[in-house]
Amino acid sequence: MTAAAAADSTGAAADLNDVMANNIKISLNFRKRLGSFALNLNCTLEKKVTAFLGASGSGKSTLLSCLSGTLSPDEGAIAFGDELLYASALGIDMPPEKRRFGYVFQEGYLFPHLTVAQNIRYGQPRYRRKTPESTAQVLDILEISALLQRYPKQLSGGERQRVAIARALAMEPQMLLMDEPLASLDSELKNRIIPYLHHVKDAFDVPILYVTHAISEAMALADEAFLLSNGEITASGEPHQLLTAPSAMPIAQLTGVENILSLPVAESDKSRGVTELEIGSQYLVIPYIAANIGKAIPTAIRAEDIIISLEPNLPISARNILKGAIDELDAVGERTMLSILVEGHRLSVKITHEAREQLQLRKGMEVYCVIKANAINLLWN
């Protein structure tokens, strides 16, 4: 049964039979209730890597379970290209093994009694298990050939995740589902793993659905992103546009990072160890990165890492002092949240009520935002 037939039977407006060259569309139009929580989705995934971003309890894992087939929706339809995986109106509910989706979990979940090689072979189709060349590309891209005879307990956290990704790819999946695969790793290990995920994205013609609560991971890997909140999609679009727009302020409540800026490189000087990013006619100085002039660099700054001053020339070591004007002041619990406009860019700053009173801050007032270079987090792009 084709997805187009399902669309006719359910009256859906989208043509689920529309499959672009080298880009399979995945249609998600279903509802699933779990206790008092309900996941309601109606969207089409059209890019190679799609990220769903949301806090715990927003519905990310429920989405993956329904797509993989380990959980059945209550009603609606799920289509992979022109193939129906689920359609309540037609009584279709394809079992997980026939969907052939690779799944990478947060903890990896390797079999502890099997070596790395045996874990990877476990994921392979039976007819491929005796052909080592079938996994050669996977081993090479993830750089795990030297680990084949080790057991999971002998691996670092990053190595375990690379093996888990290799096992998922070895099954030659139609799609790769990744459930917060970097959440259990520290920031250093995340920075090591993300380039491997980029290699996987570039080397394999497999669509990837990546769920996370981390803005940096969504911006690092995704071609499109959806924001999930309480089981509903609240926004969607190209990651940099979506996550740097003023309308995306609710992301701060999901991730704890209030300021996301995508700024062009004005200068990058290796000898001085600094890169300067343009923010209007001003500059944001960050540690040196190898980047071409004009390239947009996504950055993240926490609201509490910005200091407010009434004077521009402070005797401090901070390299960044940006001139702006207060647009809004709001009391949020024990803190005051300031919204400051810096040449068309909006910065959120969190200060104490005492500091607000001491500085006599008010709307329209000119202030200076002081930001240490090490408070500016670079997001992969």
Tell me briefly what this model is:
The protein has 2 domains: 3-100 and 174-255, 3-Layer(aba) Sandwich (Rossmann fold); 259-378, RNA polymerase II/Efflux pump adaptor protein, barrel-sandwich hybrid domain (OB fold (Dihydrolipoamide Acetyltransferase, E2P)), CATH 2.40.50.100.
Q: How many domains would you count in the coordinates?
A: 2
Which residue ranges are poorly predicted, with pLDDT under 50 across at least 5 consecutive positions?
1-21
Multimeric state: single chain
Strand order of the largest sheet: 7-8-9-3-10-11
- N/C terminus separation: 40 Å
CATH class descriptor of the largest domain:
Alpha Beta
> What would you report as the Rg, rounded to the nearest angstrom?
24 Å
Instruction: Say what the CATH topology of the largest domain is.
Output: Rossmann fold
| Helix/strand structural class | alpha+beta
Total beta strand runs: 21
Strand proportion, as a percent range, falls in 25-35%
Layout of SSEs?
Blueprint lengths: L2 H8 L15 E9 L2 E9 L3 E5 L6 H9 L6 E6 L2 E5 L4 E2 L2 H4 L1 E4 L11 H8 L9 H10 L14 H14 L4 E5 L7 H17 L4 E5 L2 H7 L2 E6 L2 E6 L1 H6 L6 H5 L3 E11 L4 E6 L2 E6 L8 E6 L4 E4 L10 E13 L2 E8 L2 E8 H7 L6 E6 L5 E2 L3
Parallel strand pairs: 3-9, 3-10, 7-8, 8-9
Antiparallel strand pairs: 1-2, 1-4, 4-5, 5-6, 10-11, 12-13, 12-15, 13-14, 15-21, 16-20, 17-18, 17-20, 18-19
Helix pairs in contact: 4-6, 5-6, 6-7
